[in-house]
């Protein structure tokens, strides 16, 4: 596939009608690295985990669900009979003491921001995207290959983003396998889905948090795009 550091992004007519009040953020970074393990990133992850445990000391699941951003996602996921997985990950770190770790520093920067802000994000290698991206709505019968190579029957009505080949991510079932971040990724694309009730300012701050995380281990990167689209 052709290199695609500058990512075109379009919005289907169906998306704002189906998801009024929703926002989607796009962050494109060039000149990044993606080491599997980075001591600086691991130290930042440990600091974030400690901060989250201190922030939510004595909290319950109900307290986490009362956070406006978590409540918005929980309501969205209930439409599809699912539980918001970032809530489950936050519980594992805060309540169970699980270390905040994942494979690849770019994913770690994204995961760190997700747990801090509560906002859902998918990461992609820009070079693996096929043509422009289009924000839309899952149609009945839409399928794509998810992480690990599993075939996904996407949830009809869910928000999704497609390239010219297929869906590259959806809210309920996450990113695809084809365009995922790789050890040799040098240009990364992050897309943040926010259902109604969260707002553009929160999405913009979340994208800033991802960029700040990447700066820990790849300080020379450039921001090619940082934009938020609102459904009105």
CATH superfamily of one domain: Phenylalanyl-trna Synthetase, Chain B, domain 3
- Cα(first) to Cα(last) distance is 34 Å
CATH level 3 topology of one domain = Phenylalanyl-tRNA Synthetase, Chain B, domain 3
> Could you say which overall geometry the principal axes of the C-alpha atoms support?
globular
Q: In the CATH hierarchy, what is the class of one domain?
A: Alpha Beta
Oligomer: single chain
Given helix and strand content, the structural type is: alpha+beta
Instruction: Quickly give the CATH architecture of one domain.
Output: 3-Layer(bba) Sandwich
* Alpha carbon gyration radius: 17 Å
Strand element count:
11
Summarize the helix and strand pattern as letters: EHEHHHHHEEEEEEEEHE
Q: What's the total helix number?
A: 7
**Fraction of residues in H or I helices:** 25-40%
Largest sheet: 5 strands, mixed
**Approximate strand percentage:** 15-25%
Strand order of the largest sheet: 1-4-7-8-9
Average pLDDT, rounded to a whole number, is 95
Which regions are unreliable across 5 or more consecutive residues at pLDDT < 50? Answer: none
Task: Give a written overview of the molecule.
The chain is an alpha+beta fold and 232 residues long. The protein has a domain at 9-38 and 104-230: 3-Layer(bba) Sandwich (Phenylalanyl-tRNA Synthetase, Chain B, domain 3), CATH 3.50.40. It has seven helices and eleven strands. The strands form three sheets. A five-stranded mixed sheet has the order 1-4-7-8-9. The N and C termini lie far apart (34 Å).
């Amino acid at each position: 596939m052709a290199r695609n550091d500058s990512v075109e992004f379009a919005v289907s007519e169906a998306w704002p009608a189906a998801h009024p009040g929703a926002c989607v953020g796009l962050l494109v970074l060039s000149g990044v690295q993606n080491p599997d393990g980075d001591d600086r990133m691991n130290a930042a992850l440990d600091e974030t985990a400690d901060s989250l445990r201190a922030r939510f000391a004595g909290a319950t699941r109900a307290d986490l669900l009362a956070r406006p951003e978590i409540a918005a996602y929980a309501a969205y996921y209930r439409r599809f009979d699912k539980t918001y997985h970032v809530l489950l990950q936050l519980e594992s770190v805060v309540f169970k003491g699980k270390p905040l770790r994942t494979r690849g520093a770019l994913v770690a920067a994204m995961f760190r921001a997700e747990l801090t802000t509560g906002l859902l994000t998918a990461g992609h290698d820009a070079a693996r995207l096929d043509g422009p991206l289009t924000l839309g709505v899952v149609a009945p019968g839409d399928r794509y290959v998810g992480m690990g190579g599993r075939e996904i029957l996407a949830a009809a009505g869910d928000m999704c983003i497609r390239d010219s080949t297929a869906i590259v991510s959806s809210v309920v079932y996450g990113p695809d396998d084809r365009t995922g971040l790789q050890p040799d990724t040098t240009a990364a694309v992050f897309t943040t889905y926010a259902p109604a009730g969260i707002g553009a300012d929160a999405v913009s701050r979340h994208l800033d948090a991802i960029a700040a995380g990447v700066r820990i281990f790849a300080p020379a990167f450039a921001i090619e795009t940082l934009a938020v689209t609102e459904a009105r």
